[in-house]
Amino acid sequence: NPIFGDPVFAFVSATGGVKVHRVGCPNEAEMRRRFGYRILEARWNGTGGDLMPVTIRVTGNDDLGILTNISQVLTKDSTVKVRSITVNTTEGGFEGDVTVMISNIGILEGLIKKVKAVRGVYSAVRLGK
């Protein structure tokens, strides 16, 4: 799921269609090894703006109110639309995946920085890279 600003490459599928992948995606190494001749250079054109899904894995202390604090960070930014939140708790900790609709890498990086700043959050990282 590349978003505007991610480094990308194109892959010509067997049916002749072209799919855009993020550089560093989990499938890149295998595609380059097996089908290097079907990989094309690609770059973004325009300004972005289309909302694309991105999942962020958040881990931290299972403190009272931490999910509320994270939710406030996510909903405060009008350029971000929350699609889903799943959270699992363990002994004193939690791990959760937040899927947001976002238009570009700059907004994503800013959002991750804000989530990391929430007291009790250990990490916030983009999944699928």
Structure notes:
The chain is α+β, with helices and mostly antiparallel strands and 129 residues long. It is built from 3 helices and 7 strands, in the order ββαββαββαβ. It has a 4-stranded antiparallel beta sheet, covered by helices on one side. It has a 3-stranded antiparallel beta sheet with strand order 2-1-3, with helices on one face. β5 and β6 form a beta hairpin. The termini are close together. The mean pLDDT is 92.
Summed over residues and divided by their number, the pLDDT gives a mean of 92
Poorly predicted spans: none
Instruction: Give the helix tally.
Output: 3
Structural class: alpha+beta
- What topology, given as strand order, has the largest sheet? 5-6-4-7
Coarse morphology: elongated
The main β sheet shows up as: 4 strands, antiparallel
User: Would you count the extended β strands for me?
Assistant: 7
* Whole-angstrom Rg: 17 Å
Beginning-to-end CA distance, first to last residue:
9 Å
Strand content: 35-45%
Return the string of H and E elements. EEHEEHEEHE
Question: What helical percentage do the residues reach?
Answer: 10-25%
Helix and strand arrangement:
Blueprint: E1 8-12, E2 18-22, H1 28-35, E3 39-41, E4 52-61, H2 66-76, E5 81-90, E6 93-102, H3 105-116, E7 121-126
Antiparallel strand pairs: 1-2, 1-3, 4-6, 4-7, 5-6
